[in-house]
Amino acid sequence: MTGTRQSEELQMLSERLRPLYAKLAGHRLYAAMETIDDLHVFMESHVFAVWDFMSLLKALQRGVTCIDVPWTPSKFPESRRLVNEIVLGEESDLYRGRAVSHFELYRLAMQECGADTFAIDNLVRGLEDGKGWASALTRSGAPAAAQQFVQGTFECIERGKLHEIAAAFTFGREDLIPDMFRWFIRDQDERLSGRLQTLRWYLERHIEVDGDEHGPMALRMISELCGTDGVKWQEAAEAAQTALRVRLVLWDGIAQSLHQTALIA
User: Fold this and answer.
1) Measured between alpha carbons, how far is residue 155 from residues 28, 55, 173, 176, 225 in Å?
2) Most buried of 84, 112, 191, 254 (most Cβ within 10 A)?
3) How far from chain centre, in Å, is Cα 119?
4) How far lies 112's CA from each of 53, 108, 178, 216, 231, in Å?
5) Could you report the per-residue pLDDT of 155-165, keeping only the tens digit for each?
6) Model pLDDT for residues 65-103, shown as the tens digit of each residue
7) Which residues lie closer than 8 Å to 148 by C-beta, 6 or more apart?
């Protein structure tokens, strides 16, 4: 009976998110992207979503696994397996024979295609110098929509509710990018003689692991963390909706930047 209840809750949650997924899939941003310069604008904001994904992941790792010494087993066996697998891939995947995080890979892809890494590098330097995330973000020079996106993520993290963090992590991340965008990347890569190969690998890798492996496991994690607690399911649904809404804000901001650039040109 417990499994049936959780399946029903997952179904209801998915139905609540369907309109937001539809808005993201049909967003005007994708049709607005036509040139490599447009891709630069996209990546210079999107990289902040790539970066803050790792903070969501680490918050989950801290909550569902044991990172203390002496070690004791956590009470979330399904969730800890998923999180440990994702940490392995996200923080130290293998690309061209070397270990690299997906964030570092994305930054490399930006460099290879000529996108500006100034703002994201500023953020990382600020954090390495001991600044808090909010101060480092404000001083980074990140686009306003990217800052709003990151703020939404950290508000969820700082509430400290694992089921909310898991919902934002599961329903608001990289598998939201549609086929239309990947075709655009493929066409640009052919025009640029392979300068987008790293970006193409990054996107295809996320589709591979998110859809075939991590996606189903992440749904089980939500079920494990929420159990049969109706309040937790409600909070998880609200956290997922918020994650998708701030993603829409990010997409709106990038689309507006592209529109302004087109007017100047």
Assistant:
1) 27, 12, 16, 21, 19
2) 254
3) 18
4) 22, 6, 23, 33, 47
5) 999 999 999 99
6) 999 999 999 999 989 998 999 899 889 999 999 999 999
7) 246, 249, 250, 253
